[in-house]
Amino acid sequence: MNLALEAPPLHTLTIADRDERFPVNRVFCVGRNYAAHAREMGKDPDREPPFFFMKPAVAVVDASNPVGVPYPPKTGNYHHEIELVLAIARGGRDIPLTQALEHVYGYAVGLDMTRRDLQLEARDKGRPWEFGKSFACSAPIGALRRARDIGHPASAAIMLSVNGQTRQSSDIAKLIWSVSECVAYLSEYESLEPGDIIMTGTPEGVGAVVTGDVMRGEVAGLDPIEVRVTG
Ligand code: MN
């Protein structure tokens, strides 16, 4: 096959203790999946069906080692959202809830970095969230741990600190929609494909970072991430 241009780079993630890497296809993100975060965003945390938005593969940054991400343009309110991330190994559509975990390759710690000012302006005008959420380097993600090695965590402390001070602290047991439910529900609307990533939503405590800040994100049982905001 002759390509008119050099093919765009494949975006991949580190897999802990493995030589092979995980190729990223699409990144789906769940909105407002912890009740306390829904409240801080001014929304009713009732158990409405989950909703999703997407980030492009160029959003993904391998954060398996300490890494920097650039402060993005056109924002004065650049927010951290610490999230449990899962990776899809096997695609499918209309995946039954009871089989959903069989499609999961593994788990990692990730950040859904957000231009909050642009997101809220779009939200309030009924416009898409793209400018707030879907930009380059907006999804630093740590090393994946394979489900075959660690199982499927249903409860684990999730935490984010900035410059050593805790900003977000919760437990993934508080997810309104579980990993299984997110996979099954999403697959009713869109056939999942190998390489897809799902970011499961952030707990309360989101807030702004500025150039020079160092974010440390943890989910118990997974590899922590350290992400510095560069100028
Ligand atoms: Mn998020």
Spatial arrangement of strands, main beta sheet: 4-3-15-8-9-12
Small molecules in complex: manganese (II) ion
The tally of helices reads: 5
Radius of gyration: 17 Å
How much helical structure, as a percent, in the residues? Answer: 10-25%
Proportion of β residues?
25-35%
Q: How many domain units?
A: 1
The CATH superfamily is Fumarylacetoacetase-like, C-terminal domain
State the end-to-end distance.
Answer: 40 Å
What is the β-strand count?
Answer: 18
Mean pLDDT: 96
Shape: globular
CATH architecture, by name, is Alpha-Beta Complex
In CATH, the topology is named Fumarylacetoacetate hydrolase, domain 2
Largest sheet: 6 strands, mixed
Indicate the CATH class.
Alpha Beta
> What sequence of helices (H) and strands (E) makes up the elements?
EEEHEEEEEEEHHEEHEEHEEEE
Structural class: alpha+beta
Runs in which pLDDT lies below 50 for 5 or more consecutive residues are none
Task: Give an overview of the whole structure.
This protein is an alpha+beta fold. The chain has a single domain, classed as Fumarylacetoacetase-like, C-terminal domain (Fumarylacetoacetate hydrolase, domain 2, Alpha-Beta Complex), CATH 3.90.850. Helix content is 15%, strand content 34%. It is built from 5 helices and 18 strands. The strands form 5 sheets. Strands 4-3-15-8-9-12 form a 6-stranded mixed sheet. The chain has a 5-stranded mixed sheet with strand order 6-18-17-13-14, with no helix packed on it. Strands 10-7-16 form a 3-stranded antiparallel sheet. Strand 17 and strand 18 form a beta hairpin. The longest helix has 11 residues. The radius of gyration is 17 Å and the shape is globular. The protein starts with 11 loop residues before the first strand and ends with a strand. The model has no long low-confidence stretch (mean pLDDT 96). Bound molecules: manganese (II) ion.
